[in-house]
């Protein structure tokens, strides 16, 4: 579901990528695991703006989760998703680090 999701790539390299993402009202992220060809994929998601209702991040296992705002997890190992955003937008600053 891509209901006008806006993604701005701030940095993209072999080991590190940084994205600024806006998820609009009505959007949800279905359960998935991020596939990579080799190594480990860590994601550090910083929720800049939480929606007024919905849009909760759910992951099988986190390295840490600070108040639902700063979340570090292995996106290549653990299934994760975001519930439907009922009201408002969700702004996310996402750091993806690949470790061989």
UniProtKB/TrEMBL annotation:
<protein>
    <submittedName>
        <fullName>2OG-Fe(II) oxygenase superfamily protein</fullName>
    </submittedName>
</protein>
<dbReference type="InterPro" id="IPR044862">
    <property type="entry name" value="Pro_4_hyd_alph_FE2OG_OXY"/>
</dbReference>
<dbReference type="Pfam" id="PF13640">
    <property type="entry name" value="2OG-FeII_Oxy_3"/>
</dbReference>
<feature type="domain" description="Prolyl 4-hydroxylase alpha subunit Fe(2+) 2OG dioxygenase">
    <location>
        <begin position="20"/>
        <end position="94"/>
    </location>
</feature>
